[in-house]
Amino acid sequence: xxxxxxxxxxxxxxxxxxxxxxxxxxxxxxxxxxxxxxxxxxxxxxxxxxxxxxxxxxxxxxxxxxxxxxxxxxxxxxxxxxxxxxxxxxxxxxxxxxxxxxxxxxxxxxxxxxxxxxxxxxxxxxxxxxxxxxxxxxxxxxxxxxxxxxxxxxxxxxxxxxxxxxxxxxxxxxxxxxxxxxxxxxxxxxxxxxxxxxxxxxxxxxxxxxxxxxxxxxxxxxxxxxxxxxxxxxxxxxxxxxxxxxxxxxxxxxxxxxxxxxxxxxxxxxxxxxxxxxxxxxxxxx
Length: 286
Hints:
- This protein has three domains: 87 residues, no CATH class; 65 residues; 103 residues, CATH 2.40.50.140.
- By secondary structure, the chain is of the alpha+beta class.
- The chain has a five-stranded mixed β-barrel. It has a four-stranded antiparallel beta sheet with strand order 1-2-3-4.
- Helix 4 crosses helix 5.
């Protein structure tokens, strides 16, 4: 009789564990008001049953023949209450953990595959960017070289144009000099004696002249090499030529017929002074 009563009491107790009240739920789950905090430990959500999984810890393992609990929020009770839906023995619990381990392994493998794929794609995109950057660099480099060559070609073209214009100008100047008619000292002095104003208009001061005559003296005056030109028009007034080169003046002798190219002239007391003169033959030669 005592054994039967004990068996019925145990069954009623286990049946009560299947649907816990708020107070008992608080006992098993201290987060909801119970005292035995270390009795159960939350494992996670069991997607196979749709409930939360708690593991039974050491304190009651000898008392109940189960390893874990599947629980869910109670209906019609306070928001913190829980119902035990199913208890698992050690074998069932381990099988459930093996399912999770297998699924986690698959998930980990998939994550690793996805991470490897992302890494490969990232590296691919990096290589694409590097290739595009190199391509753009080569394009810029080629454009820079093209522009440099174009600028160099344009500079050379402009240099050739300047050389051609310079050569043409020199040729025109040479032809103009060759066509110049020489003036003589007597012509200049006679014009000045007749009318200085008219003479200056006839022979502008800052004009180039070809001067022909006979050297009567070669001297140095105030550091300048000066050639005195013979004049028969006036015994008091005459002409002189200021040479730019001592070397050219050194080869002139008294009595030589001279042919000079002078850049300008001036008048002082009826006498003519040709300035910056060179031998005409040297001007034509150069």
